[in-house]
Design brief:
The complex is a heterodimer of chains A (316) and B (318). By secondary structure, chain A is an alpha+beta fold. Chain A has one domain. In chain A, 16% of the residues lie in helices and 33% in strands. Chain A is built from 4 helices and 19 strands. In chain A, a hairpin with a 2-residue loop joins strand 7 and strand 8. By secondary structure, chain B is mainly alpha-helical. In chain B, the strands form 3 sheets. Chain B has a 3-stranded antiparallel β-sheet with strand order 3-5-4. Chain B contains 11 helices and 7 strands. In chain B, helix 2 packs antiparallel against helix 4 and helix 10 packs antiparallel against helix 11. The termini of chain B are far apart. In chain B, strand 1 and strand 2 form a beta hairpin. The radius of gyration of chain B is 21 Å and the shape is globular. The chains are: A alpha+beta (316), B mainly alpha (318).
Chain lengths: 316, 318
């Protein structure tokens, strides 16, 4: 009896150990630098719309809302360090870090490629201090000049989102002094367009900084739950601003998408830079059958970007 | 491109780019001094002219750079750190949009002080000035800047047109293209018969502004921008073009030529089309090559029209 109990316990211990080894089999990426992640594996592209390896699962879906085409990617990662940001300078220098002194911009596809992204979207255009008034990237504090016109998105080192509404320089200093050790990424564009499942943008909402009333291309990032996210881009015309979504409609689109993941919807959806900056990059097979990074939304027009947010693999 | 070469001279560490640019400046200053001595300048004032033009050009170029990138004066939490970054030459850079007025201001002050004709003096200095600018552009990649889009034709990669980045990709050396264009501008400026004082300087200003607008658009380095996406050097070139056009027009009126309604009409249309072209590069779905070709044609017509009027105004005065 005692022997069999011991055998069962030993077997259970071995199982638990092997499970631990599996979960910890990948190297956690440095969260304090823009160090480059392992490249995604060709065999893990299950279709034109899905990538899955042991550390990350990305599934894309497309649809139409109010006559406008949109693309949504559902992303599940196993470690918060897989959510990363890329400076444009990385396309020419693998060791490039974010700098307040750089005005560099680069094509989204090249940025995604240089970071070995599984999926990448545009950020808040960090090199424009008039709009991106507060910024932290990969744990490095970049800028704090908030005038209260923007909601700030804070991503902590567990990969969880938080919002500092209408954040001023003083608000940020106070928050930073209390939370500096746990802060990972800070974006300043916004606003938070969905909170706790519901749209926060009324029909008459007007924000001149982000030209909220214009029907144009839009990008947002959402948190569904722990280490589970969605990124959404809606198409549009960036010349005459007549064929896309205004911010109110975009928030309703995001609100609706959120309920696909459960009755509570998205916890937070944060609006990022839009217009021709809106970019969602994923690898797909080209006409020769080769997997290449492609801009999926409005591929015919690409503006150089200053920064991107990407999700990467940990599988070496 | 990822590593900027630095040289130690005793205790001082200086970038190879800054060292070579300084040597080029000394060479250009020597050439200007020789040319001014032929125009009855003494060596001392001629050297002073070069120093004043160079130092004020550097000061205004750096000052404008820091005014536009005022974030150098703030720490990451937004606290003012004083003006020390302005004097730390390991930080920031210099914009040619500040250098050009600085050079003219410095030179003009010395001309006034020694009772010399500023227009004639600048005519003597402008070709060495263009050659200095071209030489600095040729070595700009040593500062980690001066590159443009990725090159797709392998044949050009190992030529001076190619710069290799940290990933081993080949990029177009925009600064090399600009340097070659400035050599052509220097050749035309030196070769044209422009006897009226100041005409050679105006010719150089027209060619410089028209030749730099498109390559500046191709730059993908740490371009200085204002008003979100506008490139400072391109705006500066447009301002230089309009100011030069106004001076050419004023001279041509004084030489008895017509009022030039068509001249101004073409110029305003050209500037409007160039601005539209830049917007189209960002917004429209037309091929970039066609947009650049259109812009090049507009610039060629504008430069041709301005130089034609400048040359005709010489005849009117003769």
């Amino acid at each position: 009896m005692c022997k069999s109990c011991l055998s069962v316990l030993l077997a259970a211990l071995l199982l638990a150990l092997s499970a631990c080894a599996c979960a910890e089999g990948f190297t956690h990426l440095d969260m304090n630098s823009t160090a480059i992640a392992p490249a995604p594996k060709d065999e893990c592209y299950l279709s034109d719309n899905e990538y899955k390896d042991d550390s990350i699962h990305v599934e894309l879906s497309e649809g139409k809302y109010a006559g406008v085409h949109y693309t949504m990617a559902h992303v599940t990662i196993s470690d918060p360090s897989q959510l990363r940001t890329i400076p444009a300078a990385q396309v020419n220098n693998p060791k490039a870090e974010f700098s307040v002194f750089s005005d560099k911009a680069a094509p989204a596809v090249r940025m995604a490629q240089s970071a070995n992204a599984v999926i990448a979207i545009n950020g808040d255009y960090i090199t424009i201090p008039r709009i991106c008034q507060i910024a932290m990237r990969q744990g490095q504090q970049i800028r704090n000049n908030g005038n209260g016109s923007f909601d700030v998105l804070v991503i902590d080192r567990n990969g969880d989102f938080g919002i500092l509404p209408a954040c001023t320089k003083e608000d940020y200093v106070e928050y930073y002094n209390r939370h500096a050790d746990s802060m990972y990424q800070v974006f300043c564009f916004g606003p938070a367009i969905v909170l706790d499942g519901r749209s926060t943008i009324p029909k008459d909402y007007e924000n001149g900084y982000i030209i909220s009333w214009e029907q144009t291309q839009r990008t947002a990032i959402a948190q569904i739950g722990p280490l589970e996210y969605a990124v959404i881009t809606s198409d549009g015309d960036a010349v005459f601003h007549k064929a896309g979504l205004d911010l109110h409609s975009f928030s309703l689109l995001c609100e609706g998408i959120g309920y696909r993941f459960g009755p509570e919807g998205f916890k937070i959806v944060y609006n990022l830079d839009g217009g021709n900056s809106a970019a969602l990059v994923f690898k797909r097979r080209d006409e020769n059958g080769n997997l290449t990074y492609q801009k999926l939304n409005v591929p015919e027009r690409e503006r150089d970007l200053a920064d991107m947010i990407c999700f990467v693999s940990l599988v070496p | 491109m990822s590593e900027i070469p630095v040289i130690s001279i005793g205790e001082t560490r200086v970038t190879l780019f800054a060292l070579l640019a300084g040597l080029f400046f000394l060479a250009a200053a020597a050439a200007v001094t020789v040319r001014l001595r032929r125009r009855e300048w003494k060596t001392g004032p001629a050297v002073l002219f070069c120093l004043a033009a160079g130092l004020l050009g550097l000061a205004l170029g750096r000052g404008l750079f820091f005014v536009i990138r005022s974030e150098y004066f703030l720490d990451p939490m937004g606290q003012f750190v004083g003006l020390a970054p302005l004097f730390d030459f390991n930080l920031g850079g210099v914009t040619v949009v500040g250098v050009i007025p600085g050079v003219f201001l410095g030179g003009w002050i010395v001309c006034r002080a020694f009772g010399k004709n500023a227009a004639e003096t600048f005519d003597a200095a402008v070709v060495p000035g263009l050659l200095l600018f071209a030489a600095i552009l040729f070595i700009e990649p040593l500062s980690g800047q001066g590159y443009g889009p990725m090159m797709t034709r392998p044949a050009f990669c190992w030529s001076p047109l190619g710069i290799q980045n940290g990933w081993g990709d080949w990029l177009l050396s925009v600064s090399f293209v600009e340097g070659v264009l400035l050599l052509i501008a220097a050749g035309i400026t030196a070769g044209l018969c422009l006897p009226l004082p100041g005409s050679r300087t105006l010719c150089a200003a027209v060619l410089l502004s028209c030749m730099m607008i498109i390559p500046e658009s191709l730059r993908e380095d740490d371009v200085l921008r204002i008003f979100i996406f506008a490139r400072v050097t391109q705006l500066g070139c447009c301002v230089l073009l309009v100011v030069s056009a106004a001076l050419i027009w004023y001279r041509s009126i004084r030489s008895g030529m017509g009022k030039g309604v068509l001249f101004w009409g073409v110029l305003v249309l050209a500037v409007a089309l160039l601005i539209t072209g830049e917007f189209a590069l960002d917004k429209a779905e037309w091929p970039d090559g066609w947009i650049y070709l259109g812009m090049a044609l507009i610039l060629a017509v504008t430069a041709g029209m301005l130089l034609n009027r400048l040359i005709r105004s010489q005849r009117g005065n003769a």
